[in-house]
Amino acid sequence: MRAFAIFPASREARVISAAEPPAPPAEAVRLKMLEVGVCGTDREIAAGDYGTPPAGEDHLVLGHESLAEVADVGAGVQGLAVGDLVVPSVRRPCPHRWCTACQNGQQDFCYSGDFTERGIKQRHGYMAERVVERAEFLTAVPSGLRDVAVLIEPLTIAEKALTQIWGVQQRLPWACAIDPTARPSQGCNALVLGAGPVGLLGAMALAESGFRTHVYSREPLGGPRSKLVESFGGRYLSAEDFQVDDLPGEAGG
Fold first, then answer.
1. How many angstroms separate the CA atoms of 1 and 22, rounded?
2. How many helices and strands in the chain, by DSSP H and E?
3. What is the pLDDT of residues 40-78, one digit of tens each?
4. Which of 2, 25, 24 is nearest to 14 (CA)?
5. Among 23, 38, 132, 142, residue whose Cα is nearest residue 86
6. How does strand 138-141 pair with strand 85-88?
7. If DSSP states are collapsed to H, E and C, what string results for 201-245?
8. Beta bridge partners of 91
9. Mean pLDDT, to the nearest integer, of 82-106?
10. 222 CB burial (10 A radius; 0-12, 13-18, 19+)
11. Mind listing the pLDDT tens digit for each residue in 4-27?
């Protein structure tokens, strides 16, 4: 099968011929990859800034933002069937029993730094025709989201931040409450700096959670990104119209 790989020693990036993955073990599934996103992380790996192949190999298959279709299901897998759409996660837990984060399935907060990541650090990624993955690292996706599901992995950046924001807010006596009738000083304001893909996904997640959401970026007001922000109820602030020092007065605390 074909895959796309980086060779760190020579700074080469090319399509390679890779071995077909075997039939999945009991706890895993074999995936037909449908879409793989390319982001700044992939560009930096291709430039040699970082990226580590699996032990004993000279190349790293790229791809961490992905969407796949289940092609074959291991005997012990429940809740997934051939034809289901899934989004794989990226980071795998470290082996240390003292790492509370990884031991509790929160490997994005790994204490040791000895985690591995598909397509980034010591594990091949998803930019191949077929991949075998453990079912525990897959999230099923409704078929109605087929056209946008490849964006789920970058969306998790914003969702993880929201989880932590609420964890902090709930410990504070002045925690804001989502109340559209409250005065601005009593509600929840959000400011996103930059209207790139992750910034826009984050702004959508904030708006959906009830925040009065502002997005500050360089594109002039009236451009496609500002129209997208306005379409989901956010307010777009252009750097052509506002300086950074103006933002507290425009977006609130």
1. 12
2. 6, 14
3. 999 999 999 999 999 999 999 999 999 999 999 999 999
4. 2
5. 142
6. antiparallel
7. HHHHHHHHCCCEEEEEECCCCCCHHHHHHHHCCCEEEECCCCCHH
8. 117
9. 96
10. exposed
11. 999 999 999 999 999 999 999 999
